[in-house]
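Structure ticket #2291
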Amino acid sequence: MFVTRCSRWAILYCRRTEMTAIPAGDLRRFAGRSPIKLIIIDSPPVIEALLPEYERRYAGRLYVTRSMPEYLEFLHPAVSKGAALDWLAQHYGIPRERIMAAGDRHNDLPLLQHAGHPVAMPHSEARLREAAAFVPTRQDTGVAEAIAWFLARC
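Resolution: structure written out below.
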């Protein structure tokens, strides 16, 4: 993973992902190459403020999301958990109406939008809860509640 410098944010990311940071200075030297992902890491309030700005700026050209409060991630527009769910459903011949998906982070929104039975965990941000057909009552038993809710509908 190339970073401008080994900041505390780069170290945090490397700890979470078990990656190694390679200080590269000015990342513009990689212009023209195809990265898997670009990421800005900063305090959650900064990232929260930047997210809508970058979603608007790159709409249709990049998928802009957050997987952690400190991350602002930029990916190919065709890449998301929703696209992955669609591929899996098609590969295994499972109709959307028979799929439950649960999420709790911003990057789970496409997953919920592509599932027939979307579930947002109780501590999820409002955007996810609004996209959900079901929100469990308790965080510690949320997955069990979601499974019971889904099975009652099958």
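Closing remark: The CA atoms of residues 81 and 149 lie 22 Å apart.
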